[in-house]
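Quarterly update, task 2.4: D-mannonic acid-bound model.
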Amino acid sequence: MKITDAKVLISSPGRNFVTLKVYTDQGIYGLGDATLNGRELAVAAYLSEHLIPCLIGRDPFQSEDIWQYFYRGAYWRRGPVTMASIGAIDIALWDIKGKALNTPVYNLLGGKSRTGVMVYGHANGRDIEETMDEVGKYAAMGYRAIRAQSGIPGILSTYGVAKDKLYYEPAEKGLPTENLWSTEKYLLHVPKLFEALRLKFGDDVHLLHDAHHRLTPIEAARLGKSLEPYRLFWLEDPTPAENQASFRLIRQHTVTPLAVGEVFNTIWDCKDLVQEQLIDFLRTTVVHAGGITHLRRCADFAALYQIRMGCHGATDLSPVCMGASLHFNLWVPNFGVQEYMRHTPETDAVFPHGYSFERGYLIPGDTPGHGVDIDETLAAKYPYRPAYLPVNRLEDGTLWHW
Ligand code: CS2
Ligand code: MG
C-alpha cells in the first residue's frame, strides 16, 4: 500500500479544528486530528509545507518508521507544533491500518482490556450552589466521575467556569481576553466547595478539580492538604511542570492524587515526574504527544511506576482525537479515566462517529479504524475564525501562570 496524497482541512463548527486526511492507492483514507488550540494555522502550515511532501509515496503500514523519520529526521525535536503534526499523521496511519485489516484500532494495540472507558464530565457554576446543581445534573446523566469548578467570590471571571454548561468552550473568539486572578481568594474558596459536594453527594462519586497551573509549589501543597478530607480522584495541574522537580515539594506535604500532562508533548516532559513517582495520572493525549505510537511509549513507561493514564479530552481536541483516544484507552493496561467535554451538535455533525456514552462510560464502537469520519461539505460551511485562550493577570497586573 502507498500513500498517494494528504490534505489539511480547517473547519470551525463552533470552534476551530484542524484535520489531516491521508489517501492511499487502495482507495482507503485515514483521518488524524491536528488541532492545537490558538495555534491552529501553525500546525496546518507545518503539515502542508514540510511533512506532507515527505509522506507521499510511503507505506502507511510502516507507521513506526514514519514516526521516527519525522521525529529524528527534522533535527528540531519536540514542541507542540511539531508533535501535533506528527500526531495527526500517526493517528491517520493507525486509522488506515484498521480499515485495511477490517478491525478497530484497539485490536491492533492488543485488544480490549475493559468493557468501556470511564469518563469525567465538567460541572461548573458561578458559585458553590450553582456548581452543586451542575454536579447533580452530571450524576443524574450517569457520570461516575465529575470535575467541579466554581466562580470565586471577588474575582470577576474564572477560567473553567462557563456560561454554556453542557458545551463549555475554553477559547474565546477574537484576540485573547485578559482575566484577573487571586490565589489567596481561590485557596480559601475551593475547600468549601468540596466540603459541600461531599456532604451532598456522599462518597460514591469520583470528584476531580483542575488548578490550571495557577499555584506555586507550596500553595499547591497547601491546597492538596486542605482537600484531603474530601478524597479527590485527582487534583490537576497544581503548578506549572516545566520544572518537574517542583512536584517534590507538593508530594512532601499531601496525599491528594495529582494529574499532570495536558500540555506535554513527549516522554521527556514527564520523565522525572514518572521516575520519581511525583504524579498519579498522566494526562497527555494522542494528538499532542505525537500520536498513538508515542503515547503508547509514555503509557508503558508510566505503568512501570504504577501511574495511570487520564487523557485530556477538552472540546479543543476534535472527535477524531477522541475516537483515537478511546481505542487507546480501551486497550491501555494502566487506564485511569478519560476527560469528556461534550462537543456541540454542530461539531458532532461535521465529525460523524461511532462512539457513544453509556452510564458514565464511552464505548468506542467496532467500526474498522478509529471510527471517526469528516463530512467535508458541511465542514466547508464553517471557515476558520481566530480564537484564543484567555491570558491571566494577578490583581496588580502581573502576568501569571496560564
Ligand atoms: C482544561 C482545558 O480540560 C482541561 O483540563 O485544562 O480546558 C484546557 O484549558 C484547554 O484544553 C486548553 O486548550
Ligand atoms: Mg486541565
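Highlight for this quarter: Residues 248 and 278 are 6 Å apart (CA to CA).
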